[in-house]
């Protein structure tokens, strides 16, 4: 009888690998490199529409108006100073440029240590960023940075709006804003308004709308709030906005109160640092000296200033209102934002709009002059968000396609 041989099948190498389970994610984490994903879909198209409208408004403004303003002289002399020119030479280049173009009468002095000149010392951001462009194009290069900042600001405003409303509504509100000539007028010339607008909007975007604040976002808020002070003093807007949004969060988003409080504290630290910076750099100028100069030597205290305010404020308000009423897109933006504050009263909208008005009032009380909406430019993010929310609600009521909104992550790209 033959022997019974038992043989055991030996699995092949391929079968062994198939049988052995793959290590879990916890055992062997897989690191995938982060790649930049190009925005696509409705969000990208909405951004393109807003940017196209912004560029069109800029081109129209360049064609119709001048871009060098009296205040541009101060930013130009500091730009030449940072380029290594001595004060007298830089001043002469600027004054010759202003005289040759004949848009307005140049100032008699630029480097004198007087309150008006000292108050411009903290605004170093535009002169520093303009150094390569002025070196390349001459004094006219001072308009390059404001133009780029305006484009970036409008994109950031659109992005902020998409956090609170749909893409079509956000795009429509952004286009409405740039339709007003008063917006582009101050944002594409040799001034700091578009830089301040861009940084103010960036600060709003860093707030913890969707995700909890991290130490990096808190640091970013502090840095952005500080940089605003190096562009233009819009402290009433920053303080009013951050305070209003924090109060809203304590009411409507209590589960994340620590996150909102940390974010507000970061922004507050930046504001304080900016105020200290301004005081140190503009020394020996004090706020009292500046106020005395602004009132034409009529007042150093609030009590002394009351007659001056009673004389100045009504005239300035009347002129400002007349100017604003002459721009129908701006009037529509303001009216719709007020309606949105009533319709969407449970959202952050009324808090944003109210804080924008508080900021505008604060700036006006500090300098009650007719500015043709220049000092109100930082209101733009709040107004666009409010109008976008209103348009979104109207569309949802009229069009079935708007009833189901895509998730915020997909919308915001």
TrEMBL record:
Residues 1-34 are annotated as: Disordered. The chain crosses the membrane at residues 43-63, 124-157, 163-184, 221-248, 260-278, 327-345, 352-371. Keywords: Membrane, Transmembrane, Transmembrane helix. This is Glycosyltransferase RgtA/B/C/D-like domain-containing protein. It comes from Phytohabitans houttuyneae.
